[in-house]
């Protein structure tokens, strides 16, 4: 009898406790808190220092619109820490990740909540997001994240060097890029490289296969979902071009040159120092140049495309920061309000874009007069709005397939592979086998 | 020195009562041991058991583990070429580092024990690199050995030698890491030196009287006398090689030009996976690809190999110590 009493008391307490928690609607979404309900919302991101301050300013704007919601902005939290918090049952209400590589894991098992019901309930128009950003925020039909600013990649070129070499505008095809690079390259008296027209080394700075693949129109997977490395001829064309380019400089000579260049995220970046005439890079480089090499005479353009895919010109590669609601979030309803605000409100996105020098991730937010006015930055806004904007697909095992593809590409480029076609097919098979680990 | 109770021949009722365990006699020692036992259970036994369990599951750190049997082990042995490459790199480092570290540390220690003037200064200087944080030391080495702008190749060029690409060349990246490890071997040097200083001087005097030269004295007196210390050095170096991580990651990141404040995960193993060690690949699988089940299987494999090596050499160490005592 006594046990029954205790059980009844527990049940009553549980009911009471659940009644005190956020209300859930029949659609499976947690309701936003009412105007008189005080809610504290925790937001975790990897932002720190100045950038965390930029986010705080935008969060202040959210709080002004929702005076009942207090936002706790916690920086320096990477994906590992968020994952630990989810496992420990005490996650933040909103998580921001700098990488799109892990979207497969976030979405597939529900570690980040599916936002489809919220989107449907609030009639959020996903068409305001370019297809590429929609792709990197969902996995196999589960939309567990929204984009929060984007990185867009294009071509940076040194105008003074172009003028000296008699070149008037940026190259538009890969053949032109190669020819321009030959003209722009300057050697020292001993034959070593003084200035490289373009460094074709895969893995160097932003030269990663996923970024190049979008300009070559190379597909990652076929209709059957299997890797297309061995079947799409664009991969072969891309790597043959890269090898020819490397052989022009000489592998060792190029390696010695790149080893002496500054780090990618340092003021000694080779493009900023005038050691490279052309480079692929993201829109954020404009801010680095403004701060570190303000006198650099440069311009930006879409990255050249494969000669047999001229229609792709104007597009480019994109990736970005993503935002979602972790499993077990205590205030999912209020969390969604913040996710929606940060990912779709043009004012919020533009303020973040100004502060962080990234591309706002919705099409309407691109129409910002200040961002459009900066000619260097405008190039990336245009690339982002182009229908040929591309990204790499989400996978069940993060970026493992990117490493496999890049490893093989580097090996071929440095002369370690004799049969390119067979090697690509083997790498594709390996990628498919690796994917089984995560499924 | 008290005799152990069970060896005594003394008879008598009072003594029998003394050696008979009283009820609950184990409570006090157990209470004293409890904190250590709790720590051991919590931080060693539980993680180890959990690791064994996870190694048979598909586990992405975020969702409930799913039992997959031996799949992770099968993939490790036959399906993952990079695991083989990483294992090769680790074995390379274990063998080369162990041999060269022992030879280098013994050689330097042999010189140090002979130094009379400024011995303290030299010993301090030799030991200092061991205090350098691995990240800082690796950064310094990548700049020193930079093939384009580094002072090492500049000095080599004065002698007409065209220096290699060091950390940018798959053939030279591991030798460069080995040099870094040798440079930071101060700890082992000091330990071996202490072992050498412990060898009785009379042995050397007797050998000298018998006409033994310095090489024979070193070979027949010093080396046998410090054998246990050397076996310790071997175990220590093997474990160091099996766990090689920080230096490999930092060197790859910096040499590829992609180092940033957050570290770069895209360039592990640069160049051409020549610095991809087994622990690095394990970490990458577990925490970046979220294949924690597979990473657990890799950890178990590493644990088994480390244990086999350690047990083998500890056994040798005991035999060496026993032989020394008998001598």
Short structural summary:
The complex is a heterodimer of chains A (439) and B (327). Chain A has helices spanning 2-20, 49-65, 79-87, 103-108, 116-121, 131-135, 159-164, 174-184, 209-216, 233-249, 251-259, 285-292, 332-344, 346-356, 369-373, 375-385, 400-413, 420-437; strands at residues 39-44, 69-74, 94-97, 138-139, 142-143, 146-158, 186-187, 193-198, 276-282, 298-301, 316-324, 389-390.
Report on this structure.
The complex is a heterodimer of chains A (439) and B (327). Chain A is α/β, with parallel strands linked by helices. Chain A folds into two domains: 34-151 and 318-390, 3-Layer(aba) Sandwich (D-Maltodextrin-Binding Protein, domain 2), CATH 3.40.190; 153-317 and 394-437, Periplasmic binding protein-like II (D-Maltodextrin-Binding Protein, domain 2). Helix content of chain A is 44%, strand content 14%. In chain A, strands 1, 2, 3, 6, 7, 8, 9, 10, 11 and 12 form a ten-stranded mixed β-sheet that branches. Chain A has a two-stranded antiparallel ribbon with strand order 4-5. Chain A starts with a helix and ends with a helix. Residues 6-21 of chain A have low confidence and may be disordered. With 327 residues, chain B is mainly alpha-helical. Chain B folds into two domains: 5-54, no CATH class; 72-326, MetI-like (MetI-like fold, Orthogonal Bundle), CATH 1.10.3720. Chain B contains 15 helices and two strands. The radius of gyration of chain B is 26 Å and the shape is flat. Chains A and B meet through helix 3, helix 4, helix 11, helix 17 and helix 18 of A and helix 3 of B.
> How many H/I helical runs of chain B?
15
Which sheet architecture does the biggest sheet of chain B show? 2 strands, antiparallel
Please name the CATH architecture of the largest domain in chain A.
3-Layer(aba) Sandwich
Strand content of chain B: under 5%
Helix content of chain A: 40-55%
Structural class of chain B: mainly alpha
CATH architecture grouping of the largest domain in chain B: Orthogonal Bundle
């Amino acid at each position: 009898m006594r046990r029954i009493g205790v059980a009844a008391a527990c049940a009553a307490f549980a009911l009471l406790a659940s009644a005190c928690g956020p209300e859930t609607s029949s659609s499976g979404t947690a309701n936003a808190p009412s105007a008189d309900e005080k809610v504290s919302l925790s937001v975790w991101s990897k932002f720190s220092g100045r950038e965390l301050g930029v986010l705080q300013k935008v969060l202040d704007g959210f709080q002004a619109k929702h005076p009942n919601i207090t936002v706790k902005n916690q920086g320096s939290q990477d994906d590992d820490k968020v994952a630990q918090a989810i496992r420990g049952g005490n996650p933040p209400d909103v998580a921001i990740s700098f990488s799109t590589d892990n979207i497969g894991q976030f979405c597939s098992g529900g570690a980040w909540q599916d936002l489809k019901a919220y989107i449907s309930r609030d009639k959020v128009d996903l068409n305001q997001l370019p297809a590429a950003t929609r792709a990197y925020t969902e996995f196999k039909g589960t939309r567990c994240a929204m984009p929060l600013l984007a990185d867009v990649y294009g071509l940076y070129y040194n105008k003074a060097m172009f003028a000296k070499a008699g070149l008037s505008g940026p190259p538009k095809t890969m053949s032109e890029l190669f020819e321009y690079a030959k003209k722009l390259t300057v050697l020292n008296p001993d034959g070593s490289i003084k200035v490289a027209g373009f460094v074709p080394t895969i893995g160097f700075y932003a030269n990663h296969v996923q970024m190049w693949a979008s300009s070559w129109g190379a597909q990652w997977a076929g209709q059957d979902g299997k890797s297309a490395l061995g079947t799409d001829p664009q991969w072969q064309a891309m790597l043959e071009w890269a090898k020819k380019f490397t052989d022009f400089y000489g592998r060792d000579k190029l390696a010695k040159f790149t080893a002496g260049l500054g780090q990618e995220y340092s003021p000694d970046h080779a493009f900023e120092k005038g050691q490279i005439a052309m480079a692929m890079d993201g829109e954020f480089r404009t801010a680095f140049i403004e701060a570190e090499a303000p006198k650099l005479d440069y311009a930006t353009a879409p990255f050249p495309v494969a000669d047999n895919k001229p229609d792709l010109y104007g597009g480019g590669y994109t990736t970005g920061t993503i935002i979602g609601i972790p499993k077990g979030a205590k205030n999912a309803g209020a969390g969604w309000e913040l996710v929606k605000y940060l990912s779709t409100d043009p004012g919020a996105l533009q303020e973040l874009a100004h502060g962080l020098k990234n591309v706002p991730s919705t099409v309407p937010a691109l129409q910002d007069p200040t961002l459009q006015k900066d000619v260097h930055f405008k190039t990336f806004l245009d690339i982002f709005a182009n229908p040929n904007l591309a990204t790499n697909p989400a996978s069940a095992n993060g970026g493992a397939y990117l490493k496999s593809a890049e490893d093989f590409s580097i090996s071929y480029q440095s002369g370690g592979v004799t049969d390119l076609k067979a090697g690509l097919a083997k790498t594709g098979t390996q990628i498919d086998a690796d994917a089984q680990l995560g499924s | 020195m008290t005799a152990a109770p069970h060896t005594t021949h003394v008879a008598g009722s009072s003594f029998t009562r003394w050696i008979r365990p009283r009820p609950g006699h184990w409570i006090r020692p157990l209470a004293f041991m409890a904190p250590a036992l709790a720590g051991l259970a919590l931080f060693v036994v539980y993680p180890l058991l959990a690791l064994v369990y996870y190694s048979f599951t598909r586990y992405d750190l975020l969702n409930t583990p799913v039992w997959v049997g031996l799949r992770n082990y099968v993939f490790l042995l036959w399906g993952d070429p990079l695991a083989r490459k990483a294992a090769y790199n680790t074995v390379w480092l274990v063998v080369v580092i162990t041999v060269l570290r022992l030879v280098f540390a013994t050689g330097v220690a042999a010189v140090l024990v002979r130094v009379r003037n400024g011995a303290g200064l030299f010993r301090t200087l030799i030991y200092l690199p061991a205090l350098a944080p691995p990240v800082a030391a690796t950064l310094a080495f990548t700049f020193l050995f930079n093939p384009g702008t580094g002072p090492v190749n500049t000095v080599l060029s004065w002698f007409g030698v065209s220096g290699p690409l060091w950390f940018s060349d798959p053939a030279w990246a591991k030798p460069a890491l080995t040099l870094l490890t040798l440079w930071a071997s101060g700890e082992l040097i000091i330990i071996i030196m202490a072992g050498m200083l412990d060898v009785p001087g009379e042995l050397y005097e007797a050998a000298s009287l018998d006409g033994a030269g310095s090489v024979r004295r070193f070979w027949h007196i010093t080396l046998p006398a410090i054998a246990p210390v050397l076996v310790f050095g071997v175990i220590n170096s093997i474990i160091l090689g099996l766990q090689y991580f920080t230096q490999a990651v930092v060197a790859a990141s910096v040499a590829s030009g992609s180092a940033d404040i957050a570290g770069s995960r895209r360039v592990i193993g640069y160049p051409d996976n020549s610095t991809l060690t087994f622990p690095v690949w394990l970490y990458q699988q577990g925490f970046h690809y979220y294949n924690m089940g597979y990473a657990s299987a890799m950890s178990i494999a590493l644990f088994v190999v480390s244990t086999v090596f350690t047990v083998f050499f500890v056994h040798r160490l005991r035999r060496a110590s026993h032989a020394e005592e008998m001598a």
